[in-house]
Amino acid sequence: MKHLAGIQKGDEIIIYHTGEEKAAVGVARALSDAYLDPGRKEPRLLVVEIEPVKTLSRPVTLAEMKANAKLKNFDLVRLPRLSVMPVSDEQWKIMEGMARR
Hints:
There is one protein chain. This protein is an alpha+beta fold. The chain has a single domain (2-100), classed as ph1033 like fold (Roll), CATH 3.10.590. 26% of the residues lie in helices and 30% in strands. It is built from four helices and five strands, in the order H-E-E-E-E-E-H-H-H. The chain has helices spanning 2-5, 62-67, 75-78, 89-100; strands spanning 12-17, 23-30, 35-36, 46-47, 50-61.
């Protein structure tokens, strides 16, 4: 929840599919800062409005990320059950490069 609360309007977001696919598949942009979910009574539940920006040239699988030594400290590799996490500029560039291969 703390990472979701930090999303601000204009931030770019990597879209990652969980389940059987386990792959980064696209990029979205935050249309709003994180705010309380108006449909829920739980004050800790936040939402962010997003819009799609682009589909990655090809999905980048979790297995590929784990095999890349430059991503060993990436939270998605270390803690894959997190649903929202920061991505450094370096990690972002590496992921984009992997999608182009």
